[in-house]
Amino acid sequence: MATKFELSELIRTGHFIDGQWVASANGKRFDVTNPATGEVIATIADGGEADARAATDAAARAFPAWRDALPKERAAVLHRWHALMLENADALGHLISLEQGKPFAEGRGEVLYGASYVAWFADEATRIYGDLIPQQQRGKRMSAVKEPIGIVAAITPWNFPLAMIARKIAPALAAGCTVVGKPAEDTPLTALALVMLAHEAGVPPGVLNLIAASRESAVPAVAAWLHDSRVRKITFTGSTPVGKYLARESADTLKKLSLELGGNAPFIVFDDADLEAAVSGLLVSKFRNGGQTCVCPNRVYVQSSVYERFGDMLARRVAALKVAPATDPDAQIGPMINARAVEKIARHVDDAVSKGARVLAGGKRLTALGPNYYAPTVLADATGAMQLSCEETFGPVVPLFRFDDETQAIQAANDTPFGLAAYFYSQNVRRIDRVARQLEAGIVGINEGALASEAAPFGGVKESGYGREGSKYGLDDYLSIKYLCQGGLE
């Protein structure tokens, strides 16, 4: 039976290196705060270059034995880890709410979502197949086998502090790789708790190593991995500028990279759409985690003939959303992650209003609740001249753009350097086929706002990155293909 822990037992304040909880080599520490109140939750080790190197040393020592473990043995460890995550879903959900701010229901939902990747890749560990290549010459046998790529460095964001690192660690371990990781400085406690459970599940020392680092210490810590030839892969979720930096800095050692980067997702509502369904789908896709997700719709295009009606329907639903701290059981939207996030949201809304946007709902800070709250907002009459048309707002703001015909909508939707997610609503089967083919995005929601699944490939095109997470394709980025040619068989 899986062990159940109290929330206080899950809070760890050191790095996890070679199976041990350790302090930083330089003794530095930093505070982790609650975004709802600004209060300090914990003061934890602040990792630097020496800690990153120690993590890599441990991963290098552990790699041969973990690589050679039977797939079913690695799968068994992952299944035990999955069971521990489910057993501790409530405590982990509360921890996510505490350091990230999302309501408890969303925090617990994230635990289940992250756990689904662990279960999925536990099963996929036993399905890493190679190929016997049809004979080309007499006396020769040719085959292709897949092998773990080596040490993987996983760098994750603050918006999904459990799910993002789980869906990187799980395929890496399933493939036979060892891992060094760094969670975001705003939300390291959840990742450290997750690693604690992995250790309880039997992940051997050195196979999984995690260091926490403040904003100031993160650059030298990550640089130690970027320049170390033993680290063969970087997997990163975060902003496009940081993704480009990682690609440049890892070029000298030609690491394999998986980059899930920024988005600027369009959401198109055609005049033949089921408007009630479109409003509901937009609420699901936009206001999850308070709009702080990379697949949130950032630009909502509504056909002219239904524009006003859709705006009114949406504004009524958005105005009814409950904004409150995660401790409120009725909360639907919590605080933004920090003051910088709120400043960006306010700047985008103010810029839009100054350029002619109409506020249909929200449009203001909610200072009575705390320092980092912003009202869910709907803006009508958005245009391409506004900052929110080309910058990812990453907050609970829905700008409504007007369009006249299908060609115009597709051109506007694709008029961005990004291509992570896109959504559209239509009941015309011919239009559905046309639009789905023409949208430049790695993920397309058709009459659906909730896209995430461990069985589906997640990733983007253009400047939203490359590589895929989840699905049967999710192991590929952690494996290399070796061609074997055996001669002298006749």
Automatic annotation (TrEMBL):
Active site: 260
Gene Ontology BP terms: gamma-aminobutyric acid catabolic process
InterPro entries (alphabetical): Ald_DH/histidinol_DH, Ald_DH_C, Ald_DH_CS_CYS, Ald_DH_CS_GLU, Ald_DH_N, Aldehyde_DH_dom, Aldehyde_DH_Superfamily
Annotated Pfam families: Aldedh
Keyword Methyltransferase assigned: no
Keyword terms of this UniProt record: Oxidoreductase
Keyword Oxidoreductase attributed: yes
GO molecular function: succinate-semialdehyde dehydrogenase (NAD+) activity
Residue ranges occupied by any Aldehyde dehydrogenase domain in the UniProt entry: 21-483
Protein family membership: Belongs to the aldehyde dehydrogenase family.
Name of this protein: Succinate semialdehyde dehydrogenase
Organism: Paraburkholderia phenazinium
Organismal lineage: Bacteria, Pseudomonadati, Pseudomonadota, Betaproteobacteria, Burkholderiales
